[in-house]
Amino acid sequence: MLKITDLIIDPRSLGSKFWLVSIDPAYSYQNGQRTSEISGYRYTVALPEKNLEKVGIKIPGKQLLDAPENGYMEVTFTGLELYFYWQNGQPNIAAKATGVSLANTKN
After folding, report:
1. Residue closest to 15 by CA, chosen among 66, 42, 43, 54
2. Does any domain span residue 44?
3. Number of folded domains that form the chain
């Protein structure tokens, strides 16, 4: 039987621009409980092509960029994947990537 968690969501459905607004540590979990160990960082981006909806994209390992001091900065992600997870009986969408860098915004 096909499960919703078996489906792959196309990252292009988020649009082509990602505006980084904040960076927060992502912690490891053990037996459903959060530990004090930082496993990576969550890069929260606003999606200008989706009414500025926000999504957090987790990247394992060290922090790769500094958070913007004021406003936002445009970034690109490598290895971006979207997936479903369940919370309180409801499906939710999460994202992960292998890398992030400043976008080349020269015209």
Report:
1. 54
2. yes
3. 1
Alpha carbon distances (Å) from 83 to 67, 80, 104: 25, 10, 27
Torsion angle, alpha carbons of 24, 105, 46, 78, to 10: -60
Whether the pLDDT of residue 5 is over 90: the answer is no
Tell me the mean pLDDT in the region 18-27: 97
| Phi, psi (degrees; rounded to nearest 5) at 101 | -150, 165
Full domain range(s) for residue 95? 4-28+35-101
Identify whether 106 is part of a domain: no
How far is 104 from 67, CA to CA, in rounded Å? 17
Question: Domain for residue 82, yes or no?
Answer: yes
Amino acid at the residue 66: D
53-60 and 90-96 beta bridge pairing: parallel
Sign of dihedral through CA atoms 48, 49, 54, 55?
negative
Which alpha helices (H) appear in 1-107, and where do they start and end? Answer: none
Nearest to 80 by CA among 52, 55, 106: 55
